Amino acid sequence: MTYSQFETISMGNIRIHVYASKKFKTTTLSVMLQQQLSPDTVTKTALLPNVLQRGTASYPSTLELKRKLADLYGAILFGDVYKRGERHIMQFGLEIANEQYLQEKDSLLYAGLSFLCEVLTKPATENGVFVDAYVQQEKAILKQKIESLQDDKIRYAAQRSIEEMCKNEPYALFNHGRLEDLPGINPQNLYTYYQEVLKTCPMDVYIVGNVSADEIVQMLSQLLPTELVSAERESVHVSDVVHQVREVKVVVDRLDVKQGKLNMGCRTQISVKDPEYPALLMYNGILGGFPHSKLFINVREKASLAYYASSSVESHKGLLTIQSGIEIENYEKAVDIIKQQLEAMRAGQISENEIRQTKATISNQFREQQDRPYDLINFHFHSILSGVERTLPDLLQQIEQVQKEDILKVAEKVQLDTIYFLRDQGGNPDAKN
Questions:
Q1: Are 161 and 305 in a shared domain?
Q2: 252 contacts 423 by C-beta, under 8 angstroms
Q3: How much is the pTM?
Q4: What range(s) does the Peptidase M16 C-terminal domain occupy (predicted)?
Q5: Which of 146, 224, 178, 164 has its CA nearest to residue 42?
Q6: What's the pLDDT tens digit per position in 103-119?
Q7: CATH of the domain at 266
């Protein structure tokens, strides 16, 4: 099976994806573990990548770990969590030098893969569980990260609007977890959860660089524990993206801010696996994805109502979100003019120039991804998560074939769901301005 230029091989219940190319000066190794977003696990999941990067069985301290990375010619180790629709993804990765640029006789690729596998499967422990000091320190860091969200008003408004829009849905959860969960997490229950994740969550291993699939499979067959390879992995269930809006929700939050943040969320009823997805990308691009889009031109430039105004798509959840920064007293005007842009899309007020510019800009964005290993992995992983094989050439061709009537069909499906406004503490507490 192949997606784009990746060769996919199954090793037991683990999928290995290899992109063989000589154009990169580094080799990128990445492991993805996915599960359903859930309040029961979201905070433990967010904590795990940080704890696992603190030390391994062979390199139990942070200092020893850093020395090992230096020995691997300055390799870069990373780990994080993010959302794709209602899936919570843990990513672990390592970037190492391309062996062809080294005089070393020993295989740097094998050494790198071995090290990454150890980070993933042989963490530093004490008394058979995670090191208590590491867990406590990473809990404190995660607590600070969650609390600091409010310091970044753009990100805070985006998260709050999603929480309100998707209330009682898994997607409402913040990908870095919840403060109230942290006191109950300890080395024992986190380690037990870690073992469950390794043995039950779908796992995808990515390698991008001057490598061959055969050598990667041979190396991983030696490095990955047999019980991990043969473990039964549960598919992740996610809900359908069709969600009819009965009434538009209006939510106002008040903080000590000088500039208002106006976020509007729409249900598109379309996800990345649907045939209408290329037309949805075009719809978003014309509405607010780029500097030539309607939101930027009409809300920011012509009406001077916003410091910024744009839109974006969450393609696995089927959401389109509009973000803008406005003067607090301009709330009503800004809402009205943004609604006018949605109506203009629905009414077919789309020029051939807008279509042509948007096709060119989207195509350029995707083509640029071919030069970045992480973007290659991300694009391919979209296909894995959606279950629909769509290579980059396929998508580029589909975008080029999108007609105005296809965009109008998308516009008919888009429904405004939530208007969220973050404003100052002044004024009438029941008023929006």
A1: no
A2: yes
A3: 0.93
A4: 185-360
A5: 178
A6: 665 689 999 999 999 99
A7: 3.30.830.10
